[in-house]
Write a structure and sequence with these properties.
By secondary structure, the chain is an all-alpha fold. It folds into two domains: about 10-55; about 65-110. About 65% of the residues lie in helices and about 0% in strands. It has helices at about 10-20, 25-30, 35-50, 70-110. α2 packs across α3 (about 35-50). It is elongated. The mean pLDDT is about 85.
Length: about 120
């Protein structure tokens, strides 16, 4: 396994373009540029999906809400509402299962016992 090293944005693009021009030779690119096969593969995959913007490091502090456009604000709100909806659906499912277990427990507890006297 190759040692990990910091690769700049420009270097990533160079590696990707070399890999694509050499018929997706991920292993050769990894050896040539001293990085891992998986990393080269992931960069090429991101490049094909999202273009050069897909290679930008999106970690870190998010944009302030004031600096977002109206579309970005609405997209963020939709994402938050979907997450909240999913969480509430899971909570509802857990409550239903709990109630079903409680009903089952009480019905077996008070169920009519078979008459064993003859």
């Amino acid at each position: 396994m190759a040692k990990t090293r910091k690769v700049s944005y420009e270097e990533k693009i160079e590696i990707i373009k070399w890999t694509i021009t050499h018929n997706d030779a991920y292993k050769l690119a990894a050896e040539k540029y001293e990085t891992s096969y998986a990393q080269v593969y992931n960069w090429v995959k991101k490049y094909r999906q999202d273009g050069e913007e897909g290679l930008l490091d999106a970690r870190g502090k998010r944009k302030a809400i004031e600096s977002l456009s109206e579309v970005e604000k609405l997209q963020r709100e939709i994402k938050l509402l979907k997450q909240k909806n999913e969480r509430l659906e899971m909570e509802t499912e857990v409550i239903k299962k709990y109630q079903a277990n409680e009903r089952r427990a009480t019905s077996t507890k008070f169920a009519k016992k078979p008459n064993t006297k003859r």
